[in-house]
Amino acid sequence: MASSLIRALAVTAPVTGAAPAPVTDGEQHGLLHALTQIPDPRDPRGVRYPLAGLLTVAVCAVLAGASSFAAITDWLHDLDEHAS
Q1: Residue 19 pLDDT class (50, 70, 90 cuts)
Q2: Which domain holds residue 63?
Q3: Nearest-angstrom CA–CA distance, 63 and 18
Q4: Structural domains in the chain (count)
Q5: What value, to the nearest 5°, has the Cα angle with vertex 32 and ends 27 and 33?
Q6: What's the maximum distance between 2 C-alpha atoms anywhere in the chain?
């Protein structure tokens, strides 16, 4: 098993000749809105941060090139005070 689980999360869609359906105005929401729709499976006793915030940081770090959990943490700590 790879040391980074991020590769394990990559999903490969089957290749089809059909173009994807266009996104309508009603379907356009921000990243944070989409991530708030994910149910939080964690035990409430140990929760310190909202799941949507954690997922947003992870998504942004991966988009910036992070390829491991340690790299996501480093990316977060490298943010300036205004960005975080």
Answers
A1: confident
A2: 48-84
A3: 27
A4: 1
A5: 40
A6: 48
